[in-house]
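**Archive record**
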Amino acid sequence: MSLIRQIWLLLLGVVLLALAGSLAITVVAERDTLQTQLRLKNNDNAQALALALSQQRGDASLMELLVAAQFDTGYYRSIRLVRGNGQLALDRHADPAPAVAPAWFVRLLPIESAPGVGQVSDGWRAIGSLQVVSQVSYAYDDLWRSTLRGAAWMLLLGLVAGGLAMLAVRRMRVPLDATVAQAQALSEGRYVVVPEPQVPELRRLGSTMNAMVLRLRGLFESQSAQIETLRRQAHCDPLTGLPHRAHFMDRLSSAMQREDGFGGGLVLVRLADLAGLNQRIGHEATDRALLLIARALQEYPERAPECFAGRLNGADFALCLPAPDMTAETASSLGAALQAGLQGQGPGIGVHIGAIELHRQQGAGDLMAAVDLALARAESRGLFAVEVVADATASPALRGERAWRQRIVDALDGGCARLKAFPVLDRKAGLVHLECPLRLQLEPEGEFEPAARWLPLAMRSRVTSIVDGKAVDLALEAIAQDGRPRGVNLAAASLADGVFAAHLRHRLGEVPQHAAKLWLEVDESVALAHFAAVQEFARLLRPLGVRFGLEHAGQRLHQIDRLYELGLDYVKLDAAVCRGVGRSDAGREFVRSTATLLHALSLSVQAEGVEDAVDADALFACGVDALTGPWASARYEE
């Protein structure tokens, strides 16, 4: 039984006991008062009638007439005159008068009518003793009416007391509910500080809970800082802090292999004549030039979270752009910025810049070969030369944004959409859920194309909420058919669309048994850039049983200041973080620390893009709960 219910029962018991006791005491006291009044009335009437009889000088006829007249005019049960020798001289009596009060009330509260006694005499001669007994039914009626009035007043007072008690309990319940919510948030890995209650006992509890939450929050932030240090040690160049070549190539490969695709550009920057600079101006001056290049490149990821840079070797730097048709402009502005900064570092310091547009059909090796060719052309032109290779025919935007939008909408409305399933397996090869990216058939009788082909235009045309809604509908239909849980990734624009959120909540409310098997996820960059929208979206949907998480995570997880307040169920580590951990001690330590931190927040940890058994075993050993990628697909098919 809850504490509030116990308080309610206690208050109800106390109020009822107090009211019932007060009513009982009042009724008993009034009954005693009525008995006293009856006794005094009987005595007074007996004395007065005895005096009147004494004045009749012993005339029996006159005394009998007087007693009869008194009996008929009064409300008596009996009037008796007993002579001195015990002989009954006069006797008038009547049956007890019926009372309005209920019989049970009469039996419960008996009222005694004590006889009044008066002496009758004739001068000095005693005639006898007169006994007068009044009826008690009127007393019962009066006591019954008084009891009803008292009960009505007690009921009114009880209602008033109940209302005041309700206000008091509600006021008391506010800090209790806040404390319970705080404790529940702790069990879910969320660190919430609540205002301290005014009640002294609860204030001590609230203060203690808040202190514990602040300590846990501080511990989480300290662990986040340690994990960021481990990430830098595992993935970053010691001098510049940029990702080293291996990690940059892993991120590039992971981005190109994503189902939702990655269109953009690749910019390669080379510091000219690095060996000669070390001899002419010294290592410290050369390092300052390298740091200046690194800072110039790092400005782009700070403005666009999906953009990333890296140091490929001593003299070469790379910048991967997330948006298409921006490569030439970015390369030119970067060249101008570096020229302005490096010319002040000393004579002969300069860079060459080569850039290409990225396309999904190319592998990471082909991309690097192409950008190396562009860089070679820039080197042949001299310092601060910029060479851009763009294959504009591959850009879908040239076909017309309106036409592409109409093709996407027609495919969704015409039933030309299907989900592709990729398994997520736990350490026992059990299915956790199926990742289900959406594919569209944009050409009649054509292939169902991945999101890399049409998603950029869907985002530009602002139809991502329609696309995501269709993906969720298909996932729910598939769950209804085979009962297997399925996951769908959502775009940032869909989370910010109030109509989409309302429609999704209504849709899931219609099929709660299927909603419990639906997994929804957003990119890590979405949580970083739109924290409040992600938090509100989780608050709306998680009560329906939906699992909600982050995908492609790990690169900027430490930058989400209040990760514990997002309301997540799981985090899926990016393939660039997980690839090669079986052969890297630093990589394993980073994954292990990240998994430990996320488990402390009651979050499940998954890894994506796992290619071989060596990495799979290492990830499970580091505490990862489930894996997806080629390794998982091969095992699931078996």
About this structure: Residues 237-394 form a domain with the Alpha-Beta Plaits fold (CATH 3.30.70.270). The first strand starts at residue 76 and ends at 83.
